[in-house]
Structure formats: C-alpha cells, structure tokens
From TrEMBL:
Pfam families: Pyridoxal_deC. Keywords: Lyase, Pyridoxal phosphate. One of its GO terms (molecular function) is pyridoxal phosphate binding. This is Glutamate or tyrosine decarboxylase. It comes from Microbispora rosea. GO terms for biological process: carboxylic acid metabolic process. InterPro entries: GrpII_AminoAcid_Decarb, PyrdxlP-dep_de-COase, PyrdxlP-dep_Trfase, PyrdxlP-dep_Trfase_major, PyrdxlP-dep_Trfase_small. Its cofactor is pyridoxal 5'-phosphate. The keyword Lyase applies.
Length: 472
C-alpha cells in the first residue's frame, strides 16, 4: 500500500525489523542453506558498505561509469586466475542461474541448429530453466547409484550432432560430488561440442579445499575441452547476493553470450547479461569481500570448512538410522534416513530446535534426504549441529513417518490443476490439513511427503500453484 504521506526512516526500519521477525537467521550457521557466513562480521560490513557505495551506479552503460568496468575486470580476473586460465574472458552476472542461462545461449548461438543440452540428472534446474526460456531440449543422463557421479558411458551415448552443450557439475548440489569433468569434456571435444562446468557452488571453494589438503579432481578451465565455467561469489566467495562470474575459454564464445540491438531509434542497446539496467551494488560488494579476505583469508576458511565437513559426515554416520549419500568432495552433505527415521519429519524437528536443514525430494532412484551446506562458520557449531540432528532423529523415530492422507497423491495427480483458481486450490490443500496461507515457519513434513509421492511434472505444477497462492 502506498501511504498518502511519506513516513519517517526510523518508522520504516522498525517495520522491516518486525516483518523479519519470522525469517530464518542469516548469520550463525543454524541455517544450512541459502546463506553463507564467514563468521567474520568485519568482512560482511566491508561488503555492505561497498555495496551501498556502488548501489546507484547503473551497469547498463560501461562508458558512463568506468568504475564498474575497473571493478569487473578485477573480480573476473581473480576468478580466472583461480580457475585455471589467468586472463580468461568473463562476465559478472547476478547469480548462477543467469550465468548458466548465458552459457547455454552462447553455446546455442555458437553452433546454429543445435538444440540439445546433455547433463546429469543431478545438474541444477537452472539448465532446465535456460532450456525452457531458450527453446531447447534437456537430455538427462543417469548417475552412478553409489557415487552419484555422471555416467560416462551414458554421456557418450547421449551426445550427437544436435547437442549444443555438454554439462558437468563441480560439485553437483544434491550430494556434493564432482562429476568426471575430464572424461565428459574429452567426449564433448571429440564431437566439437562445447562443455560447461557448473561450478556455481564449488568454483570459489574447491581450489581452497585442495590447497587445504582435500583430494579434488581436475574440474576447471585447465581441463582440455572445458569451454566455459560458472562460479558464484555469493556462495563460498561470501559476497552479498547477486554476484556470479561466467568464464569462457575464449572471447569469441563470450561474444555469443552478448545481446545487441540497433533496430530502434533510441539509445544504444548492448547487454552482457540477461538484464539491462542493473545496480553495481553486488559488484562492489563482491570486490570488497575478495579484497577484505584475500588468499590467506579464503585458505583459512577452506581449512575450517574442510574440517567441519569431515566431522559432520563422520558424526552423522554414527547416528542410528542415518547415512551420508556418496562421499562429498565439497562442503555439501546429503543425509538419508531409513524406514525408522523419516528425513522430512527430522527436518521439522530440527527446525523446532532452531536449526534449518534443507529437505530434498527423491528423484531418479536417489532417496529423499536432508541437505547441509557447510560454511566458514560451521566448525564452531558442528558439535551442536550433530547433537540437534541426533535429537531430531530420535524425535522422528518416535513420531513415525509423515502421515500422508490415503489416496491424496492419486487424487492430486488426477486433478486438472489449471482449472482451479488460487482460492480453490488453497481450500483444497486446507481440507487435508495443509495451510498454504500460514505465516511464520511452517511444519513441512506432510507437504514434502506428499510432493515426494508425486511425479516430477505434478510436483512442478503444485509448486507453481503454491507460489501463486503465497503472493496472492
């Protein structure tokens, strides 16, 4: 609602504080997804101040604001140096999804007539989104049921003359394992197909883990056949949200990501990203974070993250009814339950104890699990986290599995969801005990159990309706 008269700043800030009261905390390590915390307040403060300093600089026209060009060169240059090809051309984007969108566009435009993106089933849905927006086709490849890495023989069989892009993850988000990048890139190169490595999570983490002593396989632009790689700085770079870098092996491929239009009588249109006008605030925040931490700072965070990840995985293995999926090479740990411990109930119980553990649905033979992203601040609280997971597992064992109303998944699958308006959909959910309009932090075990029982296409339709109701 727009007020009739302007309100005082103090009043506005007080209202924001009230509105955020039910939010998950962004600092402290009790939220194990969505946010990344160094545990170093002075670093975050430097980023916030730099973000504000660059907030009103418009990245639409680099000739008008040379400061943003200078900062982008420094930030992209730092990522290129870390990821195996100093001086590699790149683009600063708003996040992993935009980096992936541009990588897919560049590959498509570099080889007109190609329409297919070949990727593991564990690849991020941003590739599906890119394919949807760009009119392309996703060709999923299975992963090994034990290691969760992409199947190389299946990749080889899937590549053909219609393939625009081959994709590998370093790591894949669901289980934190690195796909066989060298093998996939070699197969792609032999067919003249570009190969993109999605290192949005791992790009600014894996090199520091390697330097801290972890066995990290080759994954970056130093690998023959890798033609582009994405790296989010607002993840393990610890920059404020809105900061990612997309690197290319050569400038020719980068130019394919650009968009220009002269077919109108207005100002010159040339965009490096999907967006046109965009604030340089995220760029300033990313630059300040990199400068404030430096190599020594990131290496120390890498050491802490590596130790915390190992302690978490080892500790979970000692909790009855739980197991870690695969052998995580990055700071991502997926924890599966058992017949006696429902992970969706466990997640609700952990939230009741003040911790957010991210539920992941089953798919392609991979069981449902809870996901933990380990960050620089986790080591200080890893023992407390293990205690919470153990207590939540005990509570889940006592409660039993989430109670899905009999016949509900089948009923939902049979419905024509497009024929229901948002109000009717919300009423239908409420009739089976799922309140989509509730405020605060809801219990999600039943919702997740219902979604888990549905095919992927129906899950997607339900999620779209949920979002529509939420914002109505």
């Amino acid at each position: 609602m727009l007020p009739e008269h302007g309100r005082p700043v103090t009043e506005l800030l007080a209202e924001l504080t009230t509105l955020k009261a039910a939010d998950l905390p962004v600092r402290g390590g009790k939220v194990t997804a969505y946010v990344y915390d160094t545990g170093l307040p002075e670093v975050h403060e430097a980023a916030h101040r730099a973000y504000a300093e660059m907030l009103e600089v418009n990245m639409l026209d680099p000739t008008a604001f040379p400061s943003m060009v200078a900062l982008e060169r420094q930030v992209v240059g730092a990522v290129a140096e870390l990821l195996g090809r100093p001086g590699a051309p790149g683009i600063f984007t708003s996040g992993g999804t935009e980096s992936i969108m541009l990588a897919v566009k560049a590959a498509r435009d570099a080889r007109p007539g190609t329409t297919r993106v070949v990727l593991p089933v564990t690849a991020h849905p941003a590739f599906h989104k890119a394919a949807h927006y760009l009119g392309m086709e996703i060709v999923p490849v299975p992963v090994d049921p034990v290691t969760y890495r992409a199947s190389v023989p299946a990749f080889e069989a899937a590549l053909d003359e219609r393939t625009a892009l081959a994709v590998a993850s370093a790591p894949s988000y669901p289980q934190g394992v690195v796909d066989p990048v060298e093998e996939v890139a070699a197969l792609a190169a032999a067919r003249g197909v570009p190969c993109h490595v999605d290192a949005c999570v791992g790009g600014w983490l894996l090199p520091w883990l390697r330097e801290a002593g972890a066995a990290i396989p080759p994954f970056d632009l130093a690998v023959p056949g890798v033609t582009s790689i994405s790296c989010d700085l607002h993840k393990f770079g610890y920059a404020p949200k809105g900061a990612s870098v997309l690197l290319f092996r050569d400038a020719e491929l980068r130019r394919r990501a650009y968009f220009a239009s002269a077919a109108w009588p207005g100002y010159t249109i040339i965009n490096a990203t999907v967006q046109s006008s965009r604030s340089a605030g995220p760029l300033g925040g990313a630059w300040a974070t990199l400068q404030a931490l430096g190599r020594e700072g990131y290496l120390e965070l890498g050491r802490r993250t590596l130790e915390a990840t190992r302690r978490l995985a080892e500790g979970v293995g000692k909790i009855p009814g739980l197991r870690v999926l695969g052998e995580p090479e990055a700071a991502l740990v997926a924890i599966a339950g058992s017949a006696e411990v429902d992970v969706f109930v466990l997640a609700d119980e952990a939230r009741r104890l003040g911790w957010f553990l991210q539920p992941q649905l089953s798919y392609a033979g991979i069981p449902a699990n809870i996901h933990v992203t380990v960050t620089g601040v986790t080591l200080a609280g890893v023992d407390a986290m293990l205690e919470v997971i153990a207590e939540a597992a005990d509570a889940a064992r006592r409660r039993g599995p989430a109670d899905v109303p009999e016949g509900l998944p089948e009923l939902i699958t049979s419905l024509d969801l497009d024929a229901l308006d948002d109000a009717t959909f919300a009423e239908l959910a409420a009739s089976v005990g799922i309140d989509l309009t509730a405020t605060g932090q809801p219990g999600m075990a039943v919702v997740n159990a219902v979604l888990d029982a549905l095919p992927a296409a129906t899950r997607e339709a339900i999620l779209v309706r949920f979002l529509s109701v939420l914002y109505s």
